[in-house]
Amino acid sequence: MAAPHLLRRFTRSLSRRPPTAADADWVRSVLTPGEWALWSRLPNHDRAHAVRVARRLETSLAGTPWAGDPAWLDAALMHDVGKYDAGLGLYGRVAATVCGAVGGPGMPQAWSGRTGFTRKVGLYLRHGEIGADMIRMAGGHEEAAVWSAAHHHPDTWAAVGLDPRVAAALDAADHE
Ligand SMILES: [Fe+2]
Ligand SMILES: [Fe+2]
User: Which of 5, 13, 17, 122 is 20 to 30 A distant from 97 in Cα terms?
Assistant: First the structure.
């Protein structure tokens, strides 16, 4: 991730404002009941991020063959839902991101089997795969589960059957 993107996200995450009631109604109209239950328990800044990502995706898919498919809006709204399990606040997430960069790709699995803060860091760094399990267990859209598991792993997108144009739009919406 580029530094300006990280700085923008950090600044936004300081805001504790929840999504508006209109945004929440829109989210509820997109998600399955089980997904809504998962999404609703996220902290304000995670829900606000999800709404921004889904709104950007809606704009970028307008006029494409995927514009009318709610599964991709659903995927945008649910992509970070697995962060709930780690229970990390803003500064813990910054520390986790640094640990992930320093530790390398094999460490999150090992860390999530430990205890205390180490476990939280491991769970946070594995939020994609954890979210995918949550979505499937909640009866959510398979597209949302696939995108949750894959959204930080571009090298897997083709193998899991994601259309490259949809994956690129989802990724761009997450990183603006
Ligand atoms: Fe993520
Ligand atoms: Fe995200």
Answer: 17
